[in-house]
Amino acid sequence: MKTYQTREVVVIGCGKLGAPLIACLAEAGHKVTGIDISDTLIENLQSGVVTWNEPGLTDLLAQNTEKISFQTTYQGAFDSAEISFVIVPTPSTQTGEFSNDYVLGVVSRIGSELSTRARKEHLVVIVSTVMPGSTQGVIKKALLDAASANSDLVQICYSPEFIALGTVIKNMQYPDLVLIGQETDSAGQLLEDVSLSVVKNEPRVSRLSIPEAEIAKIAINSFVTTKISFSNQISEICEFTPDSSAEKVLEAIGNDSRIGRSYLAPGAGFGGPCFPRDNRAFNKYANTLGLTADLAIATDYVNARQNERVMRIVCGLVNPGSRILVVGLSYKPDTDVTEESPGLAFVKQAQEAGFSVDAIDEYVKSNQLSLDLNVRRPSELENGDYDVAILFVPSSGYSTIPERLSNETKILDLWGFWSNSVQESYLRLGNYLARN
Q: How many domains, in total, are found in the chain?
């Protein structure tokens, strides 16, 4: 196995993606300085405290404390660092684009630090998801303007991560792809070496131009969401076709090597901080070129109607005013993030329709929500006397929920996750399993 040179690295942004990146870089042997403007976050990380759920992160940070330092200022962090990673939020605007405001603030600070240090090359890597054209446009200009006389020693790359909250460490150490957008071969090679030093598998490395990499990032997520909506469309069709299982149909389709099995399964709609907004941004970028990303629009349309579909099924099983238990408010297992969560969207819809709703979640707490909703941990479910229980998140922590439900409780299992744990007969509705 190839060995890689250890380096001094700076990571700006120590949140849910930045902290895992710091831990993985340190695990690979690099000396890492993490910078964040949040005093509370930095104090917690300095004490080894992670205030959100991310499997493996606390242990990995603890195992590499001698190689990690955290600070709230930029001062001194860049004196001898060779490479820095910018992984701060790029929130979506009302029009669907990504805002560069935080990134621009960071690169200006980086450039200012580099302008006063001894003349030495430095590579700035933009990890945050940005609109195509941003890295070599406004971001590079802000960086070089701030670097002033040392601007000729500063290079820039774009290299987004493909991760999901709850599996960030795994995704960073075992990626399918390392995507590098480069201006020069030397910058791309340095970034490739640092990136591959972190991984524990042998991923494909794609070294593209920066605009190509920017397009590829949002296009990959847009394609994945297309597969999810396609799967749920097949599920809709099977729901109304006698003797038809969406799982079996999609399994057959996925066995075609031109298509593949990944993400080709029926379930709840997609949500979270990446998929929905990357899909919309892909269409928005097409609009700036005078084009329309029709598949991205259709994907969003199919996804939006999945909660309406669940509501239709619920209304066919029970009357308004019935008691509903929603299992899973996060957008996926092993996280407390509820951004564009299908389960949470359904709760709002069900409450507006007059249903009485309670919820079970492993990590989401009632005080995180703007809704009047009783949220309990799985172990706290004592009285399972509900008219309907709906599984939105297929987490192992919810595997025993059916055992604590009344025999009269109808079950909508959006993933087929409970099919082996409940002995009663099921009425199959496309991908949904409803206990009679």
A: 2
145 & 245 share domain: no
Give the pLDDT confidence score for residue 299 in this predicted structure: 97
If you count them, how many residues does the chain have? 436
- pLDDT at residue 426 in the model: 43
- Does a structural domain hold residue 3? no
Nearest by Cα to 24 from 112, 81, 85, 79:
85
More confident of the two residues 320 and 211: 211
* 24 falls within a domain: yes
User: Do residues 157 and 125 make contact, with C-beta atoms less than 8 angstroms apart?
Assistant: yes
Q: List pLDDT tens digits, range 182-218.
A: 999 999 999 999 999 999 999 999 999 999 999 999 9
**1 contacts: CB under 8 Å, gap ≥ 6:** none
The C-alpha atoms of residue 261 and residue 238 are separated, in whole angstroms, by 18
pTM of the model: 0.93
CA distance 296 to 280: 7
**Domain span at residue 386?**
224-435
Q: Is there a contact between 358 and 386 (Cβ–Cβ < 8 Å)?
A: yes
For 373, counting Cβ atoms within 10 Å of its Cβ (0-12 exposed, 13-18 middle, 19+ buried), the class is middle
CB atoms within 10 A of CB 2: 6
Backbone torsions φ then ψ of 321, nearest 5 degrees: 95, -10
CA 337-340-346 angle, to 5 degrees, is: 105
Same domain, 244 and 188: no
286 and 417 co-located in one domain? yes
- DSSP assignment of 150-216: GGGGEEEEE------TTSHHHHHHS-SEEEEEESSHHHHHHHHHHHHHH-SS--EEEEEEHHHHHHH
Residue 1 lies in a domain: no
* % of the chain residues with pLDDT over 70: 96
Question: Are residue 305 and residue 156 in the same domain, yes or no?
Answer: no
Number of Cβ within a 10 Å radius of residue 400? 13
Kindly state the average pLDDT of the residues 351-357.
96
